[in-house]
């Protein structure tokens, strides 16, 4: 099933490159899907990372205003680097995601929580507990500020 999925997505990618410009959004999505397949089915970190990085380059070049998509793509890259235990690189990526999200949303928007949790987790893994706690506290503050008085959901 894995090989068949991979081959089909590679064929889709080839068709998109023929039909559209190489930086077309459908081409970018095909690259991301191929990266997902390589990662999920085969844990082929290097190849998945290569496809994610190609799609990021295309996004930044052709769709620089697609901030959310760029941030999501960076998260994919950060997740792969995390699985490879390249924690310093992961922190650089996640901090870049956080900056994009803060600029696009606001510093206290609920959408920042996953990124803040990712950063806190990596810092904890590196035994930088005081720094991790700062990000965890920020998560708590955002959750408190974004919950109504009749719906308290503070966990993380």
From TrEMBL:
SUPFAM superfamilies: TPR-like (SSF48452)
InterPro entries noted in UniProt: TPR-like_helical_dom_sf (IPR011990), TPR_rpt (IPR019734)
Keyword Ribonucleoprotein part of the UniProt annotation: no
Keyword Flavoprotein belongs to the record: no
Keywords attached to this entry: Repeat, TPR repeat
Domain of life: Eukaryota
Protein's name according to its UniProt entry: Tetratricopeptide repeat protein
């Amino acid at each position: 099933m894995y090989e068949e999925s991979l081959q089909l997505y590679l064929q889709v990618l080839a068709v998109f490159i023929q039909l559209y410009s190489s930086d077309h959004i459908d081409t970018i999505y095909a690259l991301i899907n191929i990266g997902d397949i390589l990662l999920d089915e085969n844990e082929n970190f290097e190849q998945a990372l290569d496809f994610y990085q190609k799609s990021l380059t295309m996004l930044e070049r052709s769709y620089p205003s697609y901030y959310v998509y760029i941030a999501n793509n960076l998260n994919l890259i950060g997740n792969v680097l995390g699985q490879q235990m390249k924690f310093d690189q992961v922190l650089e990526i996640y901090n870049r995601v956080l900056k994009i999200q803060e600029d696009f949303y606001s510093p206290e928007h609920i959408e920042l929580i996953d990124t803040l949790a990712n950063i806190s987790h990596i810092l904890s893994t590196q035994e930088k507990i005081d720094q991790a706690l700062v990000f965890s506290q920020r998560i708590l503050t955002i959750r408190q500020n974004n919950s109504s008085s009749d719906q308290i959901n503070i966990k993380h």
